[in-house]
Structure formats: C-alpha cells, structure tokens
Amino acid sequence: MTAAAARAHRPALRSGVLLSGPLLRGPRTVHLVRHPVTGAAFEVGVKEHFLMTRLDGTRNLDDLAPVYADRFGRRLGEDHWYRLLGLLGARGLLAGAPDPAPPATAPKPPNSVWRGTRPLVADADATTARLHRALRPLLRPAVQYPLLVAVLAFLALFAVRAPELIDGAAWLVRRPVALLGAALFLWLSITLHELAHGVAAQHYGGHVAEIGLRWRLPAALLYCTVDDYLFLPGRRAKLVIAGAGAHLNMVLLLPFAVWWLLLPAGAPERPALAGLLVLGTVQGLSNLVPLPPLDGYRMLGQVLGTARLAAETRTYLAVRRGGRGSPALAAYPALARRIHTAYAIGAVALVLLAAAGTVAFVLAVLG
Hints:
Layout: H1 3-8, E1 18-19, E2 23-25, E3 28-34, E4 41-45, H2 46-52, H3 61-72, H4 78-90, E5 115-119, H5 124-135, H6 141-160, H7 162-173, H8 176-203, E6 208-216, E7 219-226, H9 235-262, H10 269-286, H11 295-304, H12 309-321, H13 327-330, H14 334-366
Antiparallel strand pairs: 1-3, 2-3, 3-4, 5-6, 6-7
C-alpha cells in the first residue's frame, strides 16, 4: 500500500476482537488485545487502544487526527498510523486480513502418578452453560444479597463465639473418622468452588475454556479455566467471577451454622459441627487473601486496575534498589510507585500474619 493509499484507507477492526480495559503494568498503562480465532493476545498502549476503538471502516487518518490531538494534545503522525495498520494487519486484527498462525505454546509436562492435569469434559463452555441455565434463578440479586448478608452474620457469630468453635475444631482433629467426613465435605466444597467460577463467568458472558482435574498427590482438585476473564466489560463482573468460589464456600456452611445454633449445649453433634465450621471458614476466607494465585489476588488486581501486580512489584523493588535517580525508576508514575510500595509492604505483613495465625490456630487446636 502506498503512503497516499494508507492515508486515505478507512480500516475496520475485525469482528470479535477483544479489548480489555486499562491495566497498570509496571510504569505503563496497557490494554490487552485478543484475536477472536487464534486466541493470540498481546498488549497495546493507551494511544493505540484509542485508535483501535475507532476503526469502524468509516474513518481515515485525516478523520482521526483531530480527535487524537484533542485527546493527547499532539498530532497523530503518519508514521504512527502506518505502524499501527501494519501491526494490526500482520496480527490478523483488521477486517479482511488473513488469520496468523496460532501462537506457539510450550508443551505441557507429561502427567505422572504424582502430578498432572487432565481435562474431564469435552466442551467445558457448554457444560457450564447448562449449569448456568439450571441455576439462573438462584443467581438473582433477590437471592444472592440475602445470602451475602447471612454470610456476614455468620462471620460476626464466628468472631463472637470463636473460643467455643475452636474447641470444636480441637475435638474434631482428634477423631480420625469424624475428621475424614469433614475433609470429604471440604473437598466437595473446593470442587463446587471451581464450578462456581465457571457459572459466574457464564452469567456475565464469559467463556469457560477447560474443566479438569489437577493432582499433586496426595491432593487432587478440580479446576475451571475462564480464558477471557480480563476482557469482560465492567469491573463488577470480574470481581463477582473471582469471588464466586469463596462466596459459595461460605454459603455451603450456613445450614451447618444454623444446625449448630439450634442444638442444645450438650448435644453430641455440636463439637463436630463446630470443627467443620472452623475448617470451612478458614478454607473459604483463605481464598480471599490477596496473594497469588488466590482469588483475592485477582480481586485486588481488578480493584486497583493492575496486571501481574506481584511480578511487577518485584520488578519495581529491583529498580528501586538500583538507585533513586535511575531513568527506569523515574519512568514510574506516582500512582504506580504508591501501589507497588503498598503491595510490597502489605504482602510481607500478610505472610507474617498468616504464619502467626497458623501457629496460633494449631496451638489452640492441639493444645
């Protein structure tokens, strides 16, 4: 294409291309882009995203230059325009462009007796879609908001009655048969936790790529992969999808909490129920801790609008150790510096708090 033709060209973005919202990644704000056929994904800057969202087949360089100047305070150069069209065309993201070759993926390590993964259903998206249709009445706000209030009420009860409940946990861990029953329930809860992510993704228009079994003996757990999670519109949808598993874990404990409350003080079932409530609450709330790879980490990333927060924080700390006057450190805006510094401090505090809490819990249960 000649320069004159490129200037007059009115390109259109290919139908189905996915664009994420803005994400702070290190010193840069980026948007993720995903090809609708090959699934290839890459990052673009704010300026490229601004132009891509306006490629509808009706605008050329002369049409876009004024709005670009209004937004960024500088003229849209021809070189920038040509490079963008070349990049999008090469990646098959413009209407009429051929599909590029699918991105090469590293081969998965072979499964062994001790560790591995295995898909369990042929079409995970269709499976979760059927689950979503069956459970749709339960996903309405009129049902979920009261359940959330009930969960918060249970947590308040847990805080008030913690000594009695922890005594029940101490009773439970000393009785292998009862503990095995609680462990089976918690394993089922984790399995349903993963399916809850998939059903929530379906509710907000997401796509479930895979449902399978992951084992690291002696543990074996279900997993559910939502592959377009970051491309879903709206922050609320992404927060709900990430938190759906922990919410379900806590909801599953509510009947046992009511049962425990209604039993008389000397009932023989009370210690086992109390122990189950303690272990289930620890399991459910631990998923909300904002450390990778837990659900709370994904939720925090959405609240802050960041990508790869933990890895980028490590990079920032390494740059900071290199010297306060370095150009690499100066590239970080004030907001990024505050976020990475706060996360570094918070992550260390959380690890120390978790270690201290674990020790205290074990001593309380075994003491």
